[in-house]
Recover the amino acids of this structure.
C-alpha cells in the first residue's frame, strides 16, 4: 500500500529532526502515521509518543497486537488502556462495538497465561458475553419452540449478529463446541463406550467423532466447524491423548470406581454400626456374586483380609443390618460397574456366558 506520507517526513520524525510543532502535533494524532513509524522502527517505546486519540483507536490497537505478539506486558498495557477508555468491562454485549469485542478476544489470546489477573478478568468478561448471548438465544427458542430442532443451541444467531467478524465467530464457535462436548473424564468414558478398540476409534476419525457430537446439538455449528476445522484443535489434541492411553483407561477407571465402593462401604458400616471386618465380608460376597474378582481381589489388601477372615467367625450373616448393607452395596456395585461402565459389563457378561449363566437384569 502506498503511503500518503513522504519518506523524509517519516525519517525526520524517527531521527528526531526538527518538525514544526503544529505539524508534529498533527502527526502524533494520526493513527496511520504512527502505524507506519512503528512498523518501520519496530520500537514499542514510540507508543508513548502517541496521542490518546491514537491509543484509543481500535485499528491502532489491533495493529500493535499483530505487530508485537510476544511482547505480553506491552500488549497488556496497550489493551488495558483501550478497554478502560471504552469502559468495556461495564458494558453489555448488545452495546459493545464489534471492534472492542475483537480486541478483548485478541488480547486474551495474546496473554495466554491463565494465572494472570488480566487473563482472568478478560476471560470472565467474554464468558459473561457468551452467557448473555445464550440467554437471548434461549428466549428466542422459548418464544418459538417449533424452531428448537432446527436451531439447536442457537449458533445461527452468532453467525447473524457477528456476520462481519470472523474473530468473534471463531471465539464463540469454540466456546459453544466446548459446551457441547462432554468434559474430560466424561469425554474419555464416552469414547470407550462408543468404540470397542483404539483402532476402531482411529478408523472412525477423531474429528468425525467430535463432529458427530456437535451435529447432534447444533447443525449450524457443525457446518461452521467443517469449514473452520481449527475450531476443534484443542479438543482433537485431548482426544489424541485419550487414544494414546487407551489400554490404561479401564485400569484407571476401575481404580476410581473401587475407591467409590470403599467410601460407600465405610459410610454404611458406620451408619449400621458394623465392624470393618464385617463390612469387608459383605463386600467380598457381593464382589464374588457379581464376578468382579479380577478387578478387586488382585489388591494386596484382599490377600491379607482373606487370611484374617479365615480365623474370624461372622455372627451377623443373617442380621437385619447385615442384609441391608449387603443390598445397598450390591446396588452400588451394579451402578458403578455395570450401568456406568459398559465395557466392564461386557467383560462380566462374557465370563458369565463361559460359566453358563447371566446376571439378572443385565442380560
Amino acid at each position: 500500500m502506498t503511503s500518503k506520507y513522504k519518506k523524509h517526513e517519516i525519517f525526520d520524525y524517527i531521527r528526531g529532526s526538527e518538525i514544526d510543532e503544529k505539524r508534529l502535533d498533527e502527526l502524533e494524532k494520526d493513527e496511520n502515521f504512527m502505524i507506519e513509524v512503528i512498523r518501520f522502527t519496530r520500537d514499542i517505546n514510540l507508543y508513548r509518543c502517541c496521542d490518546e486519540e491514537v491509543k484509543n483507536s481500535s485499528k491502532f490497537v489491533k495493529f500493535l497486537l499483530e505487530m508485537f505478539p510476544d511482547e505480553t506486558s506491552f500488549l497488556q498495557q496497550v489493551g488495558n488502556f483501550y478497554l478502560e477508555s471504552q469502559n468495556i468491562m461495564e458494558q453489555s454485549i448488545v452495546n459493545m462495538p464489534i471492534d472492542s469485542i475483537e480486541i478483548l478476544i485478541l488480547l486474551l489470546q495474546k496473554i495466554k497465561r491463565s494465572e494472570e489477573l488480566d487473563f482472568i478478568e478478560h476471560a470472565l468478561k467474554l464468558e459473561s458475553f457468551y452467557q448473555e448471548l445464550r440467554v437471548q438465544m434461549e428466549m428466542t427458542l422459548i418464544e418459538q419452540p417449533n424452531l428448537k430442532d432446527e436451531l439447536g443451541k442457537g449458533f445461527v444467531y452468532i453467525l447473524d449478529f457477528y456476520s462481519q467478524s470472523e474473530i468473534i465467530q471463531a471465539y464463540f464457535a469454540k466456546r459453544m463446541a466446548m459446551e457441547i462436548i462432554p468434559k474430560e473424564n466424561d469425554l474419555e468414558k464416552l469414547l470407550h463406550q462408543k468404540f470397542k478398540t483404539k483402532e476402531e476409534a482411529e478408523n472412525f476419525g477423531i474429528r468425525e467423532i467430535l463432529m458427530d457430537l456437535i451435529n447432534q446439538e447444533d447443525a449450524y455449528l457443525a457446518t461452521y466447524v467443517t469449514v473452520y476445522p481449527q475450531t476443534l484443535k484443542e479438543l482433537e489434541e485431548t482426544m489424541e491423548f485419550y487414544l494414546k492411553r487407551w489400554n490404561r483407561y479401564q485400569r484407571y477407571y476401575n481404580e476410581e470406581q473401587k475407591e467409590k465402593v470403599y467410601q460407600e462401604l465405610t459410610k454404611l458400616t458406620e451408619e449400621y454400626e458394623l465392624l470393618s471386618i464385617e463390612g469387608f465380608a459383605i463386600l467380598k460376597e457381593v464382589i464374588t456374586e457379581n464376578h468382579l474378582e479380577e478387578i478387586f481381589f488382585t489388591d494386596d489388601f484382599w490377600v491379607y483380609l482373606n487370611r484374617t477372615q479365615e480365623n474370624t467367625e461372622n455372627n451377623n450373616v443373617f442380621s437385619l443390618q447385615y442384609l441391608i448393607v449387603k443390598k445397598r452395596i450390591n446396588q452400588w456395585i451394579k451402578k458403578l460397574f455395570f450401568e456406568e461402565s459398559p465395557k466392564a459389563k461386557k467383560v462380566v457378561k462374557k465370563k458369565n456366558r463361559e460359566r453358563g449363566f447371566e446376571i439378572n437384569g443385565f442380560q
